């Protein structure tokens, strides 16, 4: 039952006026119905307890009249639909089955479905921990301890999980799998995400990035060259190209996994400089499968790494596969594909484990505004920070990253402005006094 905030007996104790915690401004008249339950009516014109008490007698009279009409058969009452009995696991499976149909209809993405499946596993485990086997057993306080149950994860993850829980519970309400008096209440706690909680994927400082880049290229890759199994060098070079593309394009890891060679154009921009004749290659990337559903284009300074990776893939296919490999490795193949899985992308957990291995082998300072370790998503945060330090317009950066401009503005609060110490602390030496000349209009 909903929690009562205030209660006042009326009509010599035969009834009462109450207000609920969910909305203490709304007053109700309530009386026993003789079967262990209550009849109640909303007092819409009552603005205070005194108003509710004054209206009690009139409501009592109206309800007597209504009851007489029902008894005489002049008024028909619509029967209340009964709640359907369903186990928690069966309800979740049915909900996900409906979500799969929405995927088939291209209403939501497969990524959204897999995310919901993963999050609802925690929900199932939590309800078993609470001893809730059926959806009808869910009450107003069932999910009060969910944040405590998931205390090991980040606030952002907790918030995302409670959003999925709300989606599932709303579906349960439509299917009448939750009691009507419970369905009208707020069942899921709110998770407050602070500014420091958004630093779960801190940008990589230039000093730490040099260490990471050097270790992957000089240690991680070269170690694999001494292994007899040719799959190890392939995977490690794939990981290097994956990291470099993420750092220089700002693509999300899932977007990198979905990237195909048909989405990438390698453009030659001529010599790097007047004294360096090496070719400067730029990658123009068309991101079709995005988190927001809006495709975007990204010019990225990782053309050289992608060109090297393409050449390595080509030589690898010629060395270890027959000419029939062209059926799976062509312009529509995934950029970071696995030849031994029909060029499908490597699993995300393989990238995250490899990244964690790199972090354990390096002594890094970390970001100045966060105690959180670097993650694969830190590559995207680093791209945003680098572009902001280069004074890239917010509108352009928003189109490149798919971020809302408001989110990009939050990055300013954690920028390492010490990287611009020289520019911000220039002495006013050699500056000429500005001479202003007023132009007379009349």
Keywords:
442 residues, alpha+beta, DNA polymerase, domain 1, hpI Integrase, Chain A, 3 domains, 3-stranded antiparallel β-sheet, 15 helices
Describe this entry's structure for a reader:
This protein is α+β, with helices and mostly antiparallel strands and 442 residues long. It folds into three domains: 4-72, no CATH class; 88-193, Orthogonal Bundle (DNA polymerase, domain 1), CATH 1.10.150.130; 218-423, hpI Integrase, Chain A, CATH 1.10.443. Helices cover 45% and strands 12% of the residues. It has helices at residues 49-72, 88-104, 110-130, 146-149, 155-174, 180-183, 206-224, 231-249, 253-258, 303-320, 348-360, 378-389, 394-401, 405-412, 421-424; strands spanning 4-10, 15-20, 23-32, 38-43, 264-271, 279-287, 296-300, 337-338, 344-345. The protein has a four-stranded antiparallel β-sheet, with helices on one face. Strands 5-6-7 form a three-stranded antiparallel β-sheet. A two-stranded antiparallel sheet has the order 8-9. Helix 2 runs antiparallel to helix 3 (110-130), helix 3 packs across helix 5 (155-174) and helix 8 packs antiparallel against helix 10 (303-320). The longest helix has 24 residues, at 49-72.
């Amino acid at each position: 039952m909903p929690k009562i905030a205030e209660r006042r007996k009326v009509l010599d104790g035969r009834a009462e006026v109450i207000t609920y915690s969910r909305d203490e401004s709304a007053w109700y008249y309530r009386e026993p119905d003789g079967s262990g339950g209550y009849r109640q009516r909303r007092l819409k014109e009552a603005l205070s307890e005194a108003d509710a008490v004054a209206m009690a007698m009139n409501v009592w009279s109206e309800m007597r009249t209504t009851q007489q009409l029902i008894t005489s058969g002049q008024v028909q009452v619509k029967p209340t639909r009964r709640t359907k009995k369903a186990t928690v696991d069966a309800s979740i499976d049915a909900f996900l089955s409906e979500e799969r149909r929405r995927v088939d209809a291209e209403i939501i993405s497969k990524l959204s479905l897999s995310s919901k499946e993963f999050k609802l596993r925690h929900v199932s485990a939590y309800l078993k921990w609470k001893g809730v086997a059926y959806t009808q057993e869910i009450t107003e306080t069932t999910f009060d301890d969910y944040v405590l149950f998931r205390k090991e994860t980040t606030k952002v993850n907790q918030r995302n999980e409670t959003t999925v829980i709300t989606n599932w519970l709303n579906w349960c309400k439509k299917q009448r799998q939750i009691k009507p008096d419970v369905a009208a209440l707020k069942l899921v706690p709110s998770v407050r995400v602070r500014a420091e909680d958004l630093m779960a994927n801190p940008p990589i400082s230039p000093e730490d990035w040099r260490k990471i880049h050097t270790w992957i290229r000089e240690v991680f890759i070269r170690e694999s060259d001494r292994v007899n199994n040719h799959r190890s060098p392939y995977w490690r070079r794939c990981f290097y190209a994956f990291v470099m593309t993420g750092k220089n394009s700002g693509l999300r890891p899932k977007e990198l996994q979905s990237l195909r060679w048909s989405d990438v154009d390698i453009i030659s921009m001529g010599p790097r400089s007047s004294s360096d004749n090496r070719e400067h290659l730029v990658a123009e990337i068309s991101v079709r499968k995005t988190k927001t559903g809006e495709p975007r284009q990204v010019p990225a300074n990782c053309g050289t790494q992608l060109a090297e990776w393409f050449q390595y893939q080509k030589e690898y296919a010629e060395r270890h596969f027959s000419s029939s490999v062209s059926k799976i490795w062509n312009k529509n193949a995934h950029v970071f594909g696995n030849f031994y899985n029909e060029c499908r992308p490597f699993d995300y957990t393989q990238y995250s484990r490899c990244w964690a291995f790199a972090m354990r082998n390096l002594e890094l300072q970390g970001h100045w505004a966060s105690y959180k370790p670097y993650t694969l998503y830190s590559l995207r945060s680093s791209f945003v920070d680098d572009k902001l330090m280069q004074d890239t317009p917010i509108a352009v950066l928003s189109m490149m990253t798919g971020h809302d401009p408001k989110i990009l503005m939050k990055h300013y609060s954690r920028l390492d402005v010490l990287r611009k110490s020289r520019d911000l602390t220039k002495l006013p030496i050699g500056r000429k006094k500005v001479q202003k000349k007023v132009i007379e209009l009349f």
